[in-house]
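ok so I'm stuck.
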Amino acid sequence: MSNQTDQTPMQMALDLARQAAEAGEVPVGAVIIKNGEIVAKAQNEMKRSGDPTTHAEMQAIRKALIELGTGRLDGCDLYVTLEPCTMCAGAIAHAKLRRVYYGAEDQKGGAVDNGVRFFASPTCHHHPEVISGIGEAEAADLLIQFFAEKRA
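replied:
not stuck anymore, here's the structure
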């Protein structure tokens, strides 16, 4: 684990999202914090890896589990620039993250406050606290700009 920088966890996630966009990936970044320390950080890697499961959240969860040497992320908080999808929400629940902070809503693919609302499902056995809208404008702008350039 490393000590936190002058940046907030969401600012770090936004920087990771920008790096993802520069690499041709959908601009999503994620940071996991425990007791004020950075445990893991990641960005989308689907295009580079050829693996549709390498969303930023999934990568950060995998790295955090290795870093902590546990099968769970009790007491950890996830900061991610985009509302998690169903796959990521399932992983968040199984990893037992304490809290999820996300930036932009994803009305098409989101599964926390949109879509299936996974954490509200009776089949979801762990319900992290969710705080949305942190860095929302910047996260949304990164996504809008990325897809506008793809369509141009």
